[in-house]
Write a sequence for this structure.
């Protein structure tokens, strides 16, 4: 009987360590394809339509999920701007290799010609961090160069510090992060100028600028845009800028035109198995599984819901 | 007198910690622009012409520096292939968003139609690591998720382990790294199929595949190529592949057509200052200098030599 309890306790540990370390009972460790193939409907969530931003370019469509839990004032302003069709006909003004794609009003610095912000706020508080206790957190156990702790919060890669250090959490500048451009003053952004990280994750920007969400689909559209040849990838010639057809909130896109998307939940055993599949790559090709993975090298999967769901 | 000695000892410490930590005597910490502006000719080296590979596409030119210290057999074979003009008229066969651009012979798997390798070897040993003692090493003090130690060796980002762990060093899969594609067998590469990392650094590939060098200039050419729409970014339609005009060794490029390039030395106090300028960003825009930097977020500068040199 005691032996039975001991066994049960060991099994419990084994199940925990499976998630971020070893394989179960000698079974072959799972690849990411295995993990995704074994997910069920409850391993996925459907983002709120009011949290989705559809960016339409001639080159294709980009869908962003906003993160109101981390940047409530910016997200509220971005929703206002989208409802006013503020960005329609404005432009991508910057495409910098290994860094960002950025869009907004090329005339925003010119009071006479700048597009009206309408009902939107002109200036917002910096939303660089939030109280760690206010947001969900699934921790990655492998450490990080930039922050004391890293992991995921409702699908977004995040970093945080301990309660003793300040008890703050923040969105991390991983590839596909979306942020709000600002001038030198920390509180000089209003969400009308947005950027997407398209290169090696510039984590030194964390806590220096407000992140507002991440791209769910369409990174290949942004990544393939022609690079700007001016300093920092800005287009010096207005004719080279890339026109924005429209930016809409998901809730304002006609139902027939919406892309049905689901994001893998990051607070589940299935996601822990996914992380493990990236920590130790077991596809036949790999000869040296590392046993660790960097935050920004774990993709948080996005799918169109299967017909049976 | 004792006090004088104590002061001298403290100064010594201060100078050491300047390189990777604090500022000297209250002086404003340097930005990268400051550091580069203060370099002298001896802070730069000119790569050997036989270590340079010029890749010419319609979209522009890419210049790669090969790393014979890390992959001697692969580099020797790549030199043979370039001298035979092996790649001329072949193609970029894969452009995968946030991962790699890859080129070679689309018919390499078809014995009847594959291009002849001529004097080049068909198969090479895996060159995943070298003895750490055989290569230079300037250490980055900020740690790393994937390897016990990271830093630079003659301009290349590298990782290594301690003598007790195996005493090996290896090139790191940072953005702009160039590697030799292989099949499942570790020794199935020959350097005829090459790839360049164009996205967030896939460090899990370290020690799984042979890296042969890094791109010095032209990443914006590769980064802006249209993405392949097949699995893993391969072009499914042969017409979508991107033609290679030519690949030449620098020593075979007519002098008038060469790009005069210098690479910042990574074993100098100037480079230590550059790293420090990336660890603590002091440009006015930044409000939160991190005090740390990830290996792949430190650019190793490349320049055209100034007229006065």
């Amino acid at each position: 009987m005691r032996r039975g309890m001991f066994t049960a306790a060991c099994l419990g540990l084994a199940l925990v360590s499976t998630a971020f370390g070893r394989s179960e009972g000698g079974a072959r460790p799972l690849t990411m394809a295995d993990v995704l193939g074994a997910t069920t409907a409850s391993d996925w969530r459907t983002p709120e339509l009011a949290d989705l931003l559809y960016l339409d370019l001639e080159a294709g469509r980009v869908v962003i999920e906003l993160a109101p839990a981390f940047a409530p004032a910016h997200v509220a302003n971005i929703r206002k701007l989208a409802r006013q069709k503020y960005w329609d006909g404005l432009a991508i003004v910057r495409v910098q290799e290994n860094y960002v794609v950025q869009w907004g009003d090329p005339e925003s610095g010119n009071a006479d010609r700048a597009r009206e912000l309408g009902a939107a706020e002109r200036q917002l508080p910096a939303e660089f961090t939030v109280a760690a206790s206010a947001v969900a957190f699934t921790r990655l156990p492998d450490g990080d160069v930039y922050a004391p702790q890293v992991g995921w919060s409702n699908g977004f890669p995040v970093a945080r510090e301990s309660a003793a250090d300040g008890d703050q959490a923040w969105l991390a500048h991983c590839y596909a992060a979306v942020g709000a451009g600002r001038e030198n003053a920390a509180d000089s952004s209003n969400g009308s100028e947005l950027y997407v990280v398209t290169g090696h994750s510039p984590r030194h920007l964390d806590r220096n600028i407000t992140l507002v969400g991440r791209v769910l689909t369409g990174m290949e559209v942004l990544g393939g845009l022609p690079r700007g040849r001016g300093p920092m990838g800005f287009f010096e010639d207005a004719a080279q800028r890339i026109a924005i057809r429209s930016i809409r909130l998901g809730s304002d896109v006609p139902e027939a035109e919406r892309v049905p998307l689901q994001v893998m939940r990051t607070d589940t055993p299935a996601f822990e198995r996914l992380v493990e599949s990236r920590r130790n790559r077991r596809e036949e090709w790999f000869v040296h599984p590392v046993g660790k993975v960097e935050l920004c090298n774990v993709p948080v999967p996005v799918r169109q819901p299967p017909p049976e769901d």
Chain A has two domains: 2-44+263-303, 49-260. Chain A touches chain B at residues 97-98, 128, 142-146, 174-175, 184, 186, 199-204, 206-208, 219-220, 223-227, 278, 281, 284-288, 290, 292-294, 296-297 (CB under 8 Å). Residues 2-44+263-303 of chain A form one domain. Residues 16 and 22 of chain A are 9 Å apart (CA to CA).
